[in-house]
Specification:
Growth Hormone, Chain: A
Length: 427
């Protein structure tokens, strides 16, 4: 992983942390995507209906939301190192347990515990980024580790297809689930907060903590209250961020869990033929996170305000999703793939900025809590959307309605941010 050329020559230890977060996020998305890849095979094997599949996805989203009710506070209290390790053990074991499922209930239970464990990934990663990077680098750093979600989505079809063809769909869950246990060993060996990292130079430590004075002042103002969810929700910025994520987070989950099924139903694509289209989609989208982070970081370096830079990056991404409105009328598989690729590219750019907005408006002591709270709002939207999508497909047999709503979701979310986010940030 290359270090951005714009970084001052003060050391590069902090980029090792991003490498760890990148691989954790990669594994996170490998584990959650396996079911979507295997949906056509599993539904034929054990006869799961479209509505049942929607409820199984909702079980994951519901558990993800439940986990986010408390995981941010847990991470802020016990620290990123231990909290992240425990979470990945939970989701890895849950991933393996999918192999034992024999019906909707079994898959629902497995997905529930997978979602519970995976709920810690982004609050922990965002907090680690806030601990290890100054404000001006956080969006780019977030974009880099968040690119792991796309790499996971690219690697997953290859692993799942090869293992499934050779050993069956149960083995695919076991092998992918075990990856997190390997990562956990490296995490515990190498991760420390900056003041405890023995190999971190003083120059790099000072560079990382260059914004601490302003953050300390903001944290001091909130220290007496030790803000929890209720106190945070009294702030307009919290309302705006949560509304934005509620409105549009589900679109990414839709692409992740339903794209293989859409390709099979609309174009007759089978599992062996899905590998290349999915690789194209998620390889293309992997650049979106870095591009989205780069746009806002570049604008900041050009002298524009943090608020303006983040909003501009988010607006560009929101506009790039709108072409999905064209998909229902397209006869070309690769035309649809290219538009979905663009939308996934835009989502990752959106995610890089919306996650970083949290560290712009809140001190480090509240970053994980606010990230989990906004992610909870996004997951509630995902729970409702997953059941909605499943039932729409069961009733209509068509993706038309879903794509129509998805096309405008990010623009609506951007309007929510415009209404509620103040112009002044912590940065």
């Amino acid at each position: 992983m290359s270090i951005p050329s714009t970084a001052p020559k003060v050391g590069h230890y902090r980029w090792r942390i991003i490498a760890l977060l990148f691989f954790a996020t990669t594994i996170n998305y490998i584990d959650r995507q396996v079911l979507g890849m295997l949906k056509p095979i599993i539904t034929d094997d054990i006869h799961i209906s479209e509505a049942d599949y929607g409820y199984i996805v909702s079980a994951f989203q519901a558990a993800y939301a439940i986990g986010l009710l408390f995981i941010g506070r847990v991470i802020d209290k016990f620290g990123t190192r231990i909290s992240y390790a425990v979470a990945i053990v939970v989701w890895s074991l849950a991933g393996c347990f999918h192999a034992a499922a024999r019906g909707p209930l079994g898959f629902g239970i497995a997905r529930f515990f997978l979602g519970l464990g995976e709920s810690a990934n982004f609050p922990a990663a965002i907090k680690a980024t806030a601990e290890w990077f100054p404000v001006k680098e956080r969006a780019l750093a977030t974009g880099i580790f968040n690119a792991g979600s796309n790499v996971g989505a690219v690697v997953s079809p290859i692993i799942v297809t090869c293992v499934t063809v050779a050993y069956g769909w149960q083995a695919a869950f076991i092998i992918t689930g075990a990856l997190g246990l390997v990562w956990m060993v490296f995490w515990l060996l190498f991760y420390r907060i900056p003041r405890e990292a023995k190999k971190l130079s003083r120059a790099e430590y000072d560079y990382i903590n260059q914004d601490d004075r302003r953050e300390a002042e903001a944290a001091a103002q909130q220290a007496a209250q030790s803000p929890g969810w209720w106190q945070l929700m009294k702030q307009r910025s919290s309302v705006g961020i949560c509304l934005a994520r509620f409105v549009c987070d589900w679109v990414w989950w839709f692409f992740l869990f339903w794209t293989p099924d859409f390709m099979e139903k609309a174009y007759g694509v089978h599992i062996q033929q899905m590998v290349l289209p999915l690789i194209v989609i998620y390889t293309f989208s992997s650049f979106g996170g870095i591009a989205g982070g780069y746009i806002s970081s570049k604008l900041i370096n050009m002298g524009r305000s943090v608020s303006f830079s983040r909003r501009t990056g988010l607006l560009v991404c929101a506009l790039l999703v709108i072409p999905v409105l064209l998909i229902p009328g397209m006869d070309s598989l690769w035309g649809s793939i290219l538009i979905i690729s663009l939308a996934c590219f835009a989502h990752q750019g959106w995610a890089s900025n919306i996650y970083t907005v949290v560290s712009d408006y809140y001190p480090k002591s509240s970053v994980a809590t606010m990230t989990s709270m906004s992610s909870f709002a996004g997951s509630i939207g995902g729970v409702l959307a997953a059941s909605f999508v499943g039932n729409v497909l069961e009733i209509t047999g068509s993706y038309f309605v879903v794509f129509m709503i998805a096309g405008f979701a990010y623009l609506l979310a951007w309007c929510c941010l415009q209404l509620f986010l103040p112009r002044k940030t912590l940065a």
